[in-house]
């Protein structure tokens, strides 16, 4: 990999405009790669809350991509772009921590109650649980989370 450096605010805005107006994937790649340091830095702030650094970075990367795709070209400036990216990254990590907390709570609750198929389907549909986390208990097709 080539030596990459942090982009200045002006360089970020130029890349953002090239990507958003022309669909230039190399400008998008440059924005993502040169701002990944933000994800790593912010992930360290969330350590110890239950998620691994890899999960935090994964969530943060999704926030970074969302920021690049959703920020308003007319209102973002070279001074505000970094702060905007940080907000999206923090929000993505916070959402992932929230889902993790819900999963832990539901797993502990499931040891006390049995969920019916509708309740299980609702958890899967809402993204709280994944189908592979719902395990059959016995041959009677009851499930346990």
Structure description:
The protein is mainly α and 145 residues long. It has a domain at 9-97: Rna Polymerase Sigma Factor, Chain: A (Orthogonal Bundle), CATH 1.10.1740. It has helices at residues 9-22, 25-46, 53-70, 81-110, 117-125; strands at 135-136, 143-144. A two-stranded antiparallel sheet has the order 1-2. Helix 3 (53-70) crosses helix 4. The longest helix has 30 residues, at 81-110. It starts with 8 loop residues before the first helix and ends with a strand.
Please describe the structure with a list of short key phrases separated by commas or semicolons.
single chain, 145 residues, mainly alpha, Rna Polymerase Sigma Factor, Chain: A, 3% strand, disordered C terminus
Helix content bin: 55-70%
Helical segment count: 5
Order of helices and strands: HHHHHEE
* Strands side by side in the biggest sheet: 1-2
Structural class: mainly alpha
User: What is the beta-strand fraction?
Assistant: under 5%
What global shape is seen?
elongated
Q: Architecture of the domain at 9-97, according to CATH?
A: Orthogonal Bundle
End-to-end Cα distance, whole Å, is: 43 Å
Largest sheet: 2 strands, antiparallel
Name of the level-1 CATH class of the domain at 9-97: Mainly Alpha
Rg computed from alpha carbons, rounded to a whole number of angstroms: 20 Å
- Count of β-strands: 2
Low-confidence stretches: 141-145
Average of pLDDT: 81
Name of the CATH homologous superfamily of the domain at 9-97: RNA polymerase sigma factor, region 2, helix turn helix motif
Write the CATH fold name of the domain at 9-97. Rna Polymerase Sigma Factor, Chain: A
